[in-house]
Amino acid sequence: MLGCAPMRVHLVGVSGTGMGQLALLLRDAGHDVTGSDVAFDPPMGPALEQAGIRCLRGYDAAHVTPDLELVVVGNAIRKENPEAGRAEELGLPRASMSATLRERFLVNRRPLVVTGTHGKTTTSAMCAWVLEQAGLEPGWFIGGLPKDLPSGAGLGGTKRKLTGASGTVGKPSPFVVEGDEYDAVYWVKKPKFFDYVGVSSEDVVVLTSVEHDHVDIYPSREVYEAQFAEMLRAVPEAGLVACDARDARARALVLGNARSRVAFYGLDGDDTGDVTPTWSAALVAPDPVTLAQPFDVYAGGSYCGRFSLGVPGAHNVRNALGTIAACAEGFGVGVEVAKRALATFRGVRRRQDLLGTPGGVAVYDDFAHHPTAVDETLRALRSRHPSGRLWAVFEPRSATACRSTHQGDYPASFASADEVVLAPLGRTNVPEAERLDLARIVREISARGGRADAATSVDAVLDRLVREAERGDVIALLSNGAFGGLHARLLQALEAKASA
Protein backbone atom coordinates (compact mmCIF):
# COMPACT_ATOMS: atom_id res chain seq x y z
CA MET A 1 0.00 0.00 0.00
CA LEU A 2 2.83 2.40 0.80
CA GLY A 3 3.83 4.14 -2.40
CA CYS A 4 0.74 2.88 -4.26
CA ALA A 5 -1.76 5.14 -5.97
CA PRO A 6 -4.44 6.56 -3.65
CA MET A 7 -7.54 4.40 -3.31
CA ARG A 8 -11.10 4.93 -2.14
CA VAL A 9 -11.56 2.71 0.90
CA HIS A 10 -14.64 2.20 3.09
CA LEU A 11 -14.57 0.51 6.52
CA VAL A 12 -17.73 -1.12 7.89
CA GLY A 13 -17.63 -0.95 11.70
CA VAL A 14 -14.93 1.71 11.79
CA SER A 15 -15.14 2.98 15.37
CA GLY A 16 -13.79 -0.14 17.06
CA THR A 17 -10.23 0.24 18.30
CA GLY A 18 -8.60 -1.95 15.64
CA MET A 19 -10.73 -0.81 12.71
CA GLY A 20 -10.34 2.84 13.67
CA GLN A 21 -6.58 2.53 13.83
CA LEU A 22 -6.54 0.81 10.45
CA ALA A 23 -8.55 3.73 9.05
CA LEU A 24 -5.92 6.13 10.39
CA LEU A 25 -3.12 4.06 8.84
CA LEU A 26 -4.90 4.09 5.47
CA ARG A 27 -5.38 7.83 5.76
CA ASP A 28 -1.70 8.32 6.65
CA ALA A 29 -0.76 6.28 3.57
CA GLY A 30 -2.62 8.79 1.40
CA HIS A 31 -5.93 7.07 0.76
CA ASP A 32 -9.45 8.50 0.67
CA VAL A 33 -11.15 6.83 3.64
CA THR A 34 -14.76 6.66 4.81
CA GLY A 35 -16.20 4.59 7.63
CA SER A 36 -19.56 3.69 9.07
CA ASP A 37 -20.72 2.60 12.51
CA VAL A 38 -23.70 2.89 14.84
CA ALA A 39 -21.88 5.38 17.10
CA PHE A 40 -18.66 7.38 17.15
CA ASP A 41 -17.92 7.59 20.85
CA PRO A 42 -14.59 8.70 22.39
CA PRO A 43 -11.78 8.04 22.05
CA MET A 44 -11.91 6.60 18.52
CA GLY A 45 -14.83 8.61 17.14
CA PRO A 46 -13.33 12.08 17.70
CA ALA A 47 -9.89 10.84 16.55
CA LEU A 48 -11.36 9.69 13.24
CA GLU A 49 -13.21 12.94 12.67
CA GLN A 50 -10.14 15.04 13.57
CA ALA A 51 -8.13 13.02 11.04
CA GLY A 52 -10.53 14.02 8.28
CA ILE A 53 -12.11 10.61 7.84
CA ARG A 54 -15.75 10.87 6.77
CA CYS A 55 -17.76 9.14 9.49
CA LEU A 56 -21.16 7.86 8.35
CA ARG A 57 -23.60 7.13 11.16
CA GLY A 58 -25.54 3.89 10.92
CA TYR A 59 -25.34 1.10 8.37
CA ASP A 60 -26.90 1.88 5.01
CA ALA A 61 -26.38 0.13 1.68
CA ALA A 62 -26.14 3.60 0.09
CA HIS A 63 -22.80 4.10 1.89
CA VAL A 64 -21.26 1.43 -0.39
CA THR A 65 -20.85 2.84 -3.89
CA PRO A 66 -19.50 1.21 -7.10
CA ASP A 67 -16.43 3.46 -7.17
CA LEU A 68 -15.00 1.98 -3.96
CA GLU A 69 -11.76 0.11 -4.53
CA LEU A 70 -11.74 -1.72 -1.19
CA VAL A 71 -14.34 -2.46 1.51
CA VAL A 72 -12.92 -3.54 4.88
CA VAL A 73 -15.40 -5.39 7.06
CA GLY A 74 -14.94 -5.53 10.84
CA ASN A 75 -15.19 -8.81 12.75
CA ALA A 76 -18.22 -7.57 14.69
CA ILE A 77 -20.16 -7.23 11.43
CA ARG A 78 -22.52 -10.03 10.41
CA LYS A 79 -23.37 -11.21 6.90
CA GLU A 80 -26.82 -9.64 7.23
CA ASN A 81 -25.34 -6.14 7.51
CA PRO A 82 -26.70 -4.03 4.62
CA GLU A 83 -23.29 -2.59 3.74
CA ALA A 84 -21.59 -6.00 3.77
CA GLY A 85 -24.38 -7.33 1.57
CA ARG A 86 -24.14 -4.41 -0.84
CA ALA A 87 -20.36 -4.83 -1.23
CA GLU A 88 -20.85 -8.49 -2.06
CA GLU A 89 -23.69 -7.69 -4.48
CA LEU A 90 -21.54 -5.16 -6.36
CA GLY A 91 -18.60 -7.55 -6.48
CA LEU A 92 -16.31 -5.03 -4.77
CA PRO A 93 -12.96 -6.13 -3.35
CA ARG A 94 -13.54 -7.05 0.32
CA ALA A 95 -11.13 -7.84 3.11
CA SER A 96 -10.92 -8.27 6.85
CA MET A 97 -8.98 -5.86 9.04
CA SER A 98 -6.15 -8.34 9.50
CA ALA A 99 -5.90 -9.23 5.81
CA THR A 100 -5.81 -5.53 4.91
CA LEU A 101 -3.06 -4.93 7.43
CA ARG A 102 -1.06 -7.81 5.98
CA GLU A 103 -1.44 -6.94 2.32
CA ARG A 104 -1.20 -3.17 2.60
CA PHE A 105 1.28 -2.61 5.45
CA LEU A 106 3.20 -5.76 6.46
CA VAL A 107 4.44 -6.83 3.05
CA ASN A 108 8.09 -5.78 2.64
CA ARG A 109 8.37 -5.26 6.41
CA ARG A 110 9.62 -7.55 9.20
CA PRO A 111 6.67 -8.30 11.48
CA LEU A 112 7.10 -8.67 15.22
CA VAL A 113 3.86 -10.39 16.22
CA VAL A 114 2.89 -10.49 19.91
CA THR A 115 0.47 -13.33 20.65
CA GLY A 116 -0.93 -15.11 23.69
CA THR A 117 -3.93 -15.00 25.99
CA HIS A 118 -2.55 -12.36 28.35
CA GLY A 119 -0.21 -9.38 28.09
CA LYS A 120 -0.38 -8.81 24.33
CA THR A 121 -1.20 -5.11 24.40
CA THR A 122 1.42 -4.08 26.95
CA THR A 123 4.12 -6.27 25.40
CA SER A 124 3.33 -4.92 21.91
CA ALA A 125 3.62 -1.36 23.22
CA MET A 126 6.92 -2.21 24.94
CA CYS A 127 8.32 -3.72 21.74
CA ALA A 128 7.31 -0.74 19.63
CA TRP A 129 8.81 1.67 22.16
CA VAL A 130 12.12 -0.21 22.43
CA LEU A 131 12.47 -0.46 18.64
CA GLU A 132 11.57 3.22 18.28
CA GLN A 133 14.14 4.24 20.88
CA ALA A 134 16.69 2.05 19.09
CA GLY A 135 16.20 4.15 15.95
CA LEU A 136 14.71 1.33 13.86
CA GLU A 137 11.63 3.35 12.80
CA PRO A 138 9.09 0.59 13.48
CA GLY A 139 5.50 0.62 12.38
CA TRP A 140 3.01 -0.63 14.94
CA PHE A 141 -0.59 -1.79 15.29
CA ILE A 142 -1.64 -2.22 18.93
CA GLY A 143 -5.04 -3.00 20.45
CA GLY A 144 -4.82 -0.14 22.92
CA LEU A 145 -3.48 3.38 23.38
CA PRO A 146 0.21 3.42 24.41
CA LYS A 147 1.14 6.40 26.54
CA ASP A 148 4.55 6.77 24.88
CA LEU A 149 3.46 6.67 21.23
CA PRO A 150 1.26 9.20 19.40
CA SER A 151 -1.49 6.63 18.75
CA GLY A 152 -2.24 2.93 18.71
CA ALA A 153 -0.99 2.59 15.14
CA GLY A 154 1.80 4.14 13.10
CA LEU A 155 3.36 3.64 9.68
CA GLY A 156 6.99 3.90 10.76
CA GLY A 157 9.71 3.77 8.13
CA THR A 158 9.61 1.47 5.12
CA LYS A 159 13.28 0.56 5.42
CA ARG A 160 16.16 1.22 7.76
CA LYS A 161 19.66 1.91 6.56
CA LEU A 162 22.54 -0.34 7.48
CA THR A 163 26.19 0.33 6.70
CA GLY A 164 28.20 -2.69 5.67
CA ALA A 165 31.20 -3.62 3.58
CA SER A 166 29.29 -2.87 0.39
CA GLY A 167 28.10 0.53 1.63
CA THR A 168 24.66 1.66 2.79
CA VAL A 169 21.93 -0.83 1.96
CA GLY A 170 18.20 -0.94 2.62
CA LYS A 171 16.72 -3.46 5.03
CA PRO A 172 13.02 -3.90 5.84
CA SER A 173 12.01 -2.05 8.98
CA PRO A 174 10.12 -3.73 11.83
CA PHE A 175 6.35 -3.63 12.20
CA VAL A 176 4.95 -4.58 15.62
CA VAL A 177 1.50 -6.20 15.55
CA GLU A 178 -0.67 -7.33 18.42
CA GLY A 179 -1.69 -10.78 17.21
CA ASP A 180 -5.25 -11.29 18.36
CA GLU A 181 -6.58 -14.87 18.35
CA TYR A 182 -10.19 -13.76 17.85
CA ASP A 183 -11.68 -14.51 14.42
CA ALA A 184 -11.00 -12.21 11.47
CA VAL A 185 -14.36 -11.67 9.76
CA TYR A 186 -17.59 -13.56 9.15
CA TRP A 187 -16.27 -15.34 6.06
CA VAL A 188 -12.91 -16.20 7.67
CA LYS A 189 -13.58 -17.78 11.07
CA LYS A 190 -9.90 -18.11 11.95
CA PRO A 191 -7.64 -16.03 14.23
CA LYS A 192 -6.36 -12.71 12.99
CA PHE A 193 -2.79 -13.71 13.80
CA PHE A 194 -2.73 -16.10 10.83
CA ASP A 195 -2.62 -13.00 8.62
CA TYR A 196 0.48 -11.69 10.41
CA VAL A 197 2.88 -14.65 10.35
CA GLY A 198 4.74 -15.92 7.31
CA VAL A 199 4.92 -12.42 5.81
CA SER A 200 8.71 -12.33 5.78
CA SER A 201 11.37 -15.03 6.02
CA GLU A 202 12.47 -13.64 9.40
CA ASP A 203 9.23 -13.12 11.32
CA VAL A 204 9.54 -12.65 15.07
CA VAL A 205 6.76 -13.91 17.36
CA VAL A 206 6.32 -13.45 21.11
CA LEU A 207 4.08 -16.02 22.82
CA THR A 208 3.19 -14.74 26.29
CA SER A 209 0.75 -17.42 27.47
CA VAL A 210 -1.94 -19.86 26.36
CA GLU A 211 -5.06 -20.23 28.52
CA HIS A 212 -8.51 -21.08 27.19
CA ASP A 213 -10.42 -17.92 26.26
CA HIS A 214 -13.02 -16.70 23.74
CA VAL A 215 -15.30 -19.63 24.52
CA ASP A 216 -17.94 -18.24 22.16
CA ILE A 217 -15.82 -19.34 19.18
CA TYR A 218 -13.41 -21.89 20.73
CA PRO A 219 -15.61 -24.36 22.63
CA SER A 220 -12.75 -26.35 24.16
CA ARG A 221 -9.19 -25.89 25.32
CA GLU A 222 -8.02 -28.26 22.59
CA VAL A 223 -9.63 -26.20 19.82
CA TYR A 224 -8.21 -22.99 21.29
CA GLU A 225 -4.67 -24.39 21.58
CA ALA A 226 -4.81 -25.81 18.06
CA GLN A 227 -4.90 -22.25 16.69
CA PHE A 228 -1.60 -21.42 18.38
CA ALA A 229 -0.05 -24.68 17.24
CA GLU A 230 -0.91 -23.91 13.61
CA MET A 231 0.38 -20.36 13.97
CA LEU A 232 3.71 -21.57 15.38
CA ARG A 233 4.15 -23.96 12.46
CA ALA A 234 3.72 -21.01 10.09
CA VAL A 235 6.69 -19.07 11.54
CA PRO A 236 9.55 -19.49 9.01
CA GLU A 237 12.65 -21.47 9.92
CA ALA A 238 14.75 -18.31 9.77
CA GLY A 239 12.38 -16.58 12.19
CA LEU A 240 12.29 -16.42 15.98
CA VAL A 241 9.77 -17.33 18.66
CA ALA A 242 10.21 -15.83 22.14
CA CYS A 243 8.14 -17.77 24.68
CA ASP A 244 7.43 -17.46 28.41
CA ALA A 245 8.89 -20.72 29.71
CA ARG A 246 6.75 -20.67 32.87
CA ASP A 247 3.55 -21.20 30.91
CA ALA A 248 3.35 -24.98 30.53
CA ARG A 249 0.85 -24.90 27.64
CA ALA A 250 2.78 -22.28 25.69
CA ARG A 251 6.04 -24.13 26.32
CA ALA A 252 4.63 -27.44 25.10
CA LEU A 253 3.09 -25.89 22.01
CA VAL A 254 6.38 -24.23 21.07
CA LEU A 255 8.43 -27.38 21.64
CA GLY A 256 5.98 -29.45 19.64
CA ASN A 257 5.35 -27.12 16.72
CA ALA A 258 7.93 -24.36 16.20
CA ARG A 259 10.31 -24.83 13.25
CA SER A 260 12.12 -21.59 13.97
CA ARG A 261 14.75 -20.64 16.50
CA VAL A 262 13.26 -20.30 20.01
CA ALA A 263 14.26 -18.00 22.87
CA PHE A 264 12.63 -18.94 26.18
CA TYR A 265 12.38 -16.43 29.00
CA GLY A 266 11.30 -16.58 32.65
CA LEU A 267 11.69 -15.26 36.18
CA ASP A 268 14.01 -16.66 38.82
CA GLY A 269 12.23 -19.49 40.63
CA ASP A 270 9.79 -20.31 37.80
CA ASP A 271 8.92 -23.92 37.08
CA THR A 272 10.04 -24.16 33.45
CA GLY A 273 9.92 -27.94 33.06
CA ASP A 274 12.83 -29.27 31.04
CA VAL A 275 13.58 -25.86 29.51
CA THR A 276 16.37 -23.55 30.67
CA PRO A 277 15.41 -19.97 29.73
CA THR A 278 17.94 -18.00 27.72
CA TRP A 279 16.63 -14.77 29.23
CA SER A 280 15.85 -14.58 32.94
CA ALA A 281 15.18 -11.96 35.56
CA ALA A 282 15.25 -11.72 39.33
CA LEU A 283 12.75 -9.37 40.95
CA VAL A 284 13.99 -6.69 43.35
CA ALA A 285 11.78 -4.96 45.93
CA PRO A 286 9.90 -1.95 44.43
CA ASP A 287 11.44 1.46 45.09
CA PRO A 288 9.46 2.94 48.05
CA VAL A 289 9.75 6.50 46.69
CA THR A 290 9.33 6.19 42.92
CA LEU A 291 7.32 2.91 43.13
CA ALA A 292 9.37 1.66 40.17
CA GLN A 293 9.87 -2.10 39.78
CA PRO A 294 13.60 -3.03 39.55
CA PHE A 295 14.78 -6.39 38.21
CA ASP A 296 18.12 -7.96 37.36
CA VAL A 297 18.44 -9.42 33.85
CA TYR A 298 20.57 -12.39 32.80
CA ALA A 299 21.23 -13.69 29.26
CA GLY A 300 22.58 -17.21 29.02
CA GLY A 301 23.50 -16.93 32.69
CA SER A 302 25.52 -13.72 32.21
CA TYR A 303 24.49 -10.64 34.16
CA CYS A 304 23.15 -7.84 31.93
CA GLY A 305 22.47 -5.25 34.62
CA ARG A 306 19.68 -3.89 36.78
CA PHE A 307 16.61 -2.76 34.83
CA SER A 308 13.64 -0.76 36.04
CA LEU A 309 9.99 -0.44 35.02
CA GLY A 310 7.56 2.32 35.90
CA VAL A 311 4.64 -0.09 35.52
CA PRO A 312 4.21 -2.49 38.45
CA GLY A 313 4.04 -6.22 38.87
CA ALA A 314 5.87 -9.44 38.07
CA HIS A 315 3.72 -9.93 34.99
CA ASN A 316 5.07 -6.69 33.52
CA VAL A 317 8.62 -7.87 34.16
CA ARG A 318 7.68 -10.97 32.14
CA ASN A 319 6.36 -8.70 29.40
CA ALA A 320 9.63 -6.79 29.49
CA LEU A 321 11.70 -10.00 29.26
CA GLY A 322 9.72 -11.10 26.20
CA THR A 323 10.33 -7.67 24.71
CA ILE A 324 14.09 -7.84 25.37
CA ALA A 325 14.33 -11.33 23.88
CA ALA A 326 12.41 -10.38 20.73
CA CYS A 327 14.16 -7.05 20.15
CA ALA A 328 17.68 -8.22 21.00
CA GLU A 329 17.67 -11.58 19.23
CA GLY A 330 15.26 -10.65 16.46
CA PHE A 331 16.42 -7.13 15.58
CA GLY A 332 19.85 -6.72 17.12
CA VAL A 333 18.85 -4.12 19.70
CA GLY A 334 21.56 -3.69 22.34
CA VAL A 335 20.68 -4.65 25.89
CA GLU A 336 21.67 -1.20 27.17
CA VAL A 337 19.37 0.45 24.61
CA ALA A 338 16.51 -1.79 25.75
CA LYS A 339 17.31 -0.97 29.37
CA ARG A 340 17.08 2.78 28.79
CA ALA A 341 13.89 2.46 26.76
CA LEU A 342 12.09 0.26 29.30
CA ALA A 343 13.00 2.66 32.11
CA THR A 344 10.97 5.37 30.37
CA PHE A 345 8.04 3.15 29.33
CA ARG A 346 4.82 4.58 30.79
CA GLY A 347 2.40 1.82 29.89
CA VAL A 348 -0.92 1.64 28.06
CA ARG A 349 -4.23 3.26 28.86
CA ARG A 350 -6.64 0.91 30.61
CA ARG A 351 -3.80 -1.26 31.90
CA GLN A 352 -3.22 -0.38 35.58
CA ASP A 353 -3.97 3.17 34.48
CA LEU A 354 -4.08 5.61 37.40
CA LEU A 355 -7.04 7.88 36.65
CA GLY A 356 -6.70 10.13 39.67
CA THR A 357 -6.50 10.35 43.46
CA PRO A 358 -9.62 12.31 44.49
CA GLY A 359 -9.74 12.70 48.26
CA GLY A 360 -6.59 10.60 48.58
CA VAL A 361 -8.24 7.53 47.01
CA ALA A 362 -6.23 6.08 44.11
CA VAL A 363 -8.56 5.02 41.29
CA TYR A 364 -7.14 2.65 38.64
CA ASP A 365 -8.67 1.48 35.38
CA ASP A 366 -7.72 -1.97 34.06
CA PHE A 367 -8.92 -4.17 31.20
CA ALA A 368 -8.61 -7.40 33.22
CA HIS A 369 -11.49 -9.85 32.80
CA HIS A 370 -9.91 -13.33 32.74
CA PRO A 371 -9.13 -14.76 36.25
CA THR A 372 -5.39 -14.87 35.54
CA ALA A 373 -5.37 -11.22 34.45
CA VAL A 374 -7.45 -10.23 37.50
CA ASP A 375 -5.01 -12.00 39.81
CA GLU A 376 -1.89 -10.48 38.20
CA THR A 377 -3.37 -6.98 38.17
CA LEU A 378 -4.38 -7.07 41.82
CA ARG A 379 -1.01 -8.51 42.86
CA ALA A 380 0.74 -5.69 40.99
CA LEU A 381 -1.39 -3.00 42.59
CA ARG A 382 -0.88 -4.52 46.03
CA SER A 383 2.90 -4.47 45.50
CA ARG A 384 2.69 -0.80 44.51
CA HIS A 385 0.35 0.09 47.39
CA PRO A 386 1.21 -2.22 50.32
CA SER A 387 -0.90 -0.21 52.79
CA GLY A 388 -4.52 0.89 52.61
CA ARG A 389 -7.50 -1.17 51.51
CA LEU A 390 -7.47 -2.54 47.97
CA TRP A 391 -10.93 -2.61 46.36
CA ALA A 392 -11.43 -4.96 43.41
CA VAL A 393 -14.49 -3.80 41.48
CA PHE A 394 -15.19 -6.29 38.72
CA GLU A 395 -17.62 -6.19 35.81
CA PRO A 396 -17.86 -9.58 34.00
CA ARG A 397 -18.49 -8.38 30.46
CA SER A 398 -16.67 -10.45 27.83
CA ALA A 399 -18.26 -13.52 26.27
CA THR A 400 -15.94 -15.70 28.37
CA ALA A 401 -16.23 -13.77 31.64
CA CYS A 402 -20.04 -13.89 31.58
CA ARG A 403 -19.98 -17.68 31.30
CA SER A 404 -19.19 -20.28 33.95
CA THR A 405 -16.08 -21.50 32.08
CA HIS A 406 -13.76 -20.11 34.76
CA GLN A 407 -16.27 -20.22 37.64
CA GLY A 408 -13.88 -22.11 39.92
CA ASP A 409 -10.92 -19.82 39.21
CA TYR A 410 -12.43 -16.44 40.05
CA PRO A 411 -12.57 -16.65 43.91
CA ALA A 412 -8.79 -17.18 44.25
CA SER A 413 -8.05 -14.46 41.66
CA PHE A 414 -9.32 -11.81 44.09
CA ALA A 415 -7.08 -12.95 46.99
CA SER A 416 -4.97 -9.76 46.99
CA ALA A 417 -8.02 -7.53 47.50
CA ASP A 418 -9.45 -6.47 50.84
CA GLU A 419 -12.89 -5.69 49.40
CA VAL A 420 -14.44 -7.30 46.32
CA VAL A 421 -17.46 -5.75 44.61
CA LEU A 422 -19.01 -7.65 41.70
CA ALA A 423 -21.17 -5.75 39.22
CA PRO A 424 -23.96 -7.48 37.29
CA LEU A 425 -23.07 -9.49 34.19
CA GLY A 426 -22.46 -7.23 31.21
CA ARG A 427 -24.29 -9.62 28.83
CA THR A 428 -27.88 -10.73 29.13
CA ASN A 429 -27.93 -13.14 26.18
CA VAL A 430 -26.00 -15.94 27.88
CA PRO A 431 -28.24 -18.96 28.64
CA GLU A 432 -28.94 -19.19 32.36
CA ALA A 433 -27.36 -22.64 32.67
CA GLU A 434 -24.08 -21.26 31.25
CA ARG A 435 -23.90 -18.00 33.23
CA LEU A 436 -21.24 -17.07 35.73
CA ASP A 437 -22.72 -17.46 39.23
CA LEU A 438 -21.79 -14.25 41.09
CA ALA A 439 -23.47 -15.32 44.34
CA ARG A 440 -21.33 -18.46 44.39
CA ILE A 441 -18.17 -16.39 43.94
CA VAL A 442 -19.20 -14.21 46.88
CA ARG A 443 -19.82 -17.29 49.06
CA GLU A 444 -16.47 -18.85 48.15
CA ILE A 445 -14.53 -15.64 48.78
CA SER A 446 -16.25 -15.32 52.16
CA ALA A 447 -15.41 -18.94 52.98
CA ARG A 448 -11.76 -18.06 52.34
CA GLY A 449 -12.02 -15.25 54.89
CA GLY A 450 -12.39 -12.46 52.35
CA ARG A 451 -15.02 -9.76 51.98
CA ALA A 452 -17.17 -9.71 48.86
CA ASP A 453 -20.54 -8.49 47.67
CA ALA A 454 -22.55 -8.73 44.45
CA ALA A 455 -24.15 -5.36 43.62
CA THR A 456 -27.51 -5.08 41.92
CA SER A 457 -26.44 -2.32 39.53
CA VAL A 458 -23.56 -0.07 38.54
CA ASP A 459 -25.31 2.74 40.44
CA ALA A 460 -25.21 0.57 43.57
CA VAL A 461 -21.48 -0.02 43.02
CA LEU A 462 -20.91 3.73 42.78
CA ASP A 463 -22.95 4.48 45.92
CA ARG A 464 -21.01 1.97 47.99
CA LEU A 465 -17.58 3.11 46.83
CA VAL A 466 -18.36 6.77 47.50
CA ARG A 467 -19.83 5.94 50.89
CA GLU A 468 -17.08 3.63 52.16
CA ALA A 469 -13.80 4.44 50.38
CA GLU A 470 -11.35 6.35 52.57
CA ARG A 471 -8.12 8.27 52.10
CA GLY A 472 -5.29 5.81 51.40
CA ASP A 473 -7.57 3.24 49.75
CA VAL A 474 -6.95 1.93 46.23
CA ILE A 475 -9.84 1.14 43.88
CA ALA A 476 -9.24 -1.10 40.84
CA LEU A 477 -12.05 -0.88 38.27
CA LEU A 478 -11.76 -4.10 36.25
CA SER A 479 -13.74 -4.32 33.00
CA ASN A 480 -13.10 -4.79 29.30
CA GLY A 481 -15.94 -2.38 28.56
CA ALA A 482 -17.19 1.06 29.54
CA PHE A 483 -18.51 -0.15 32.93
CA GLY A 484 -21.58 2.09 32.62
CA GLY A 485 -19.45 5.23 32.76
CA LEU A 486 -18.37 4.34 36.31
CA HIS A 487 -14.81 5.66 35.91
CA ALA A 488 -15.71 9.31 35.37
CA ARG A 489 -18.68 9.20 37.71
CA LEU A 490 -16.58 7.78 40.55
CA LEU A 491 -13.82 10.36 40.16
CA GLN A 492 -16.37 13.18 40.18
CA ALA A 493 -18.26 11.80 43.18
CA LEU A 494 -15.12 11.21 45.26
CA GLU A 495 -13.90 14.72 44.44
CA ALA A 496 -17.23 16.17 45.52
CA LYS A 497 -17.13 14.16 48.74
CA ALA A 498 -13.62 15.43 49.51
CA SER A 499 -14.67 19.03 48.87
CA ALA A 500 -17.82 18.87 50.98
Molecular structure report:
This protein is of the alpha/beta class and 500 residues long. The chain has three domains: 8-96, NAD(P)-binding Rossmann-like Domain (Rossmann fold, 3-Layer(aba) Sandwich), CATH 3.40.50.720; 108-343, 3-Layer(aba) Sandwich (UDP-N-acetylmuramoyl-L-alanine:D-glutamate ligase); 353-499, Alpha-Beta Complex (Protein-Tyrosine Phosphatase, Chain A), CATH 3.90.190. It has 14 helices and 25 strands. It has helices spanning 17-28, 44-50, 82-90, 97-106, 120-133, 221-234, 248-257, 314-331, 335-343, 371-384, 410-413, 438-447, 458-468, 486-499, and strands at residues 8-12, 32-37, 54-57, 70-73, 94-96, 110-115, 139-141, 153-154, 159-164, 167-172, 174-178, 183-185, 188-191, 204-207, 240-244, 261-267, 279-283, 293-299, 302-309, 353-356, 362-366, 390-394, 419-422, 452-454, 474-478. The strands form five sheets. A ten-stranded mixed sheet has the order 8-7-11-6-14-15-16-17-18-19, with helices on both faces. Helix 2 links the parallel strand 2 (32-37) and strand 3. Helix 5 crosses helix 8 (314-331), helix 5 (120-133) packs across helix 9 and helix 6 (221-234) packs across helix 7. The longest helix is centred in the middle third of the chain and has 18 residues, at 314-331. It is globular, with a radius of gyration of 23 Å. Mean pLDDT is 92; it is low at 160-169.
Largest sheet: 10 strands, mixed
Share of residues in strands: 15-25%
- How would you write the strand order of the largest sheet? 8-7-11-6-14-15-16-17-18-19
Q: What oligomeric state is this? A: single chain
CATH class of the largest domain: Alpha Beta
Unreliable residue runs: 160-169
